[in-house]
Amino acid sequence: MLADELKGELARILPARACCRRAELAGLVHAAARRDVSTLDLATLRVARHLAASVGISLPPADLGTERGAGHGRHHLRLPLDLPEITAWRWEAASAHDRRAFLRGLLLSASISFARSGPHVEFVLRDGVQARRLRAQLAGVQVRAGLIRRRERHVVYVKGQEEIANLLRLAGAGRALLDLEADRVARDVRNRLNRLLNAEEANLDRTVRAADRQLQAIRQLAASGELERLSEGLRETARARALQPDADLDTLASSLGISRSAANHRLRRLVALAAGARGDAAEASSPARSPR
């Protein structure tokens, strides 16, 4: 899901009540130092003009400004909205549906990212008191937000699947909410599949290494003549492993008609006997110490 798709869905929502339209306008201008809509997005500006016209507010044409950054300028559109009925809007006195409309306006003016690391929404404000108030307002509708200082701005940010989903639900972005949930399910499935594949690969690697040790032990015992002096069960297990070098423990046990634990015990016994024989041979071939 792209941020443009979310803002496009929000832009297509026209509140039925005039009070909600005023609340959404208040959300659009909330982060500005001047009481205007300043945006890089033509669709957001169009929403502002449409909302203003729907409540009988006559507006001048938007002007084109330049926002200076690090070595470059960004052109943005600015629409004056310095109107008492908009700038005097207060969250504390608003109804639940007005608050939802205000949040929708906030999202239209926010910086939104849907990266692989997870969804992220930022509201950039110039005033620290205003930023702390917005954080408290979001907490009041069960949306947990953080607050950081970035250069001369105060950034209220919301991140995490659950918090973003709650914010979208409040703003009425049903389609974006479904897309976000679908992305979460797909990501969970991919992560679970990767864990299963990694576990299977690790199990296969352990099986191959164990079988290699067992085959080396069997060849050593056969070469030294020790294998023929072992019990029938151990000899039978050694023959089964030699005939099925790639079989896992369950398959090997099934072919022998014994339990998995019994097959594992016999194979461990073969490896231990071969290791003991190597130790005895190494000790016998080492030169005797001369007495002091």
Pick out its properties:
292 residues, alpha+beta, four-stranded antiparallel beta sheet, three-stranded antiparallel beta sheet, 11 helices, 15% strand
Descriptive account of the structure:
This protein has 292 residues and is α+β, with helices and mostly antiparallel strands. It is built from eleven helices and seven strands. The protein has helices at residues 3-11, 18-29, 42-54, 84-87, 96-108, 128-140, 161-171, 174-224, 232-243, 249-256, 260-285; strands spanning 36-39, 63-68, 73-80, 111-115, 118-125, 146-150, 153-159. The strands form two sheets. A four-stranded antiparallel sheet has the order 4-5-7-6. It has a three-stranded antiparallel sheet with strand order 1-3-2, covered by helices on one side. The chain is rod-shaped and about 105 Å long. Residues 64-73 and 288-292 have low confidence and may be disordered.
Unreliable parts:
64-73, 288-292
The tally of beta strands, per DSSP, is 7
Strand order of the largest sheet: 4-5-7-6
Radius of gyration: 36 Å
Mean pLDDT: 81
How many helix segments? 11
Tell me about the biggest sheet?
4 strands, antiparallel
Strand content: 5-15%
Q: Secondary-structure element sequence?
A: HHEHEEHHEEHEEHHHHH
Kindly state the percentage of residues in helix: 55-70%
**What is the distance, rounded to the nearest whole angstrom, between the alpha carbons of the first and last residues?**
83 Å
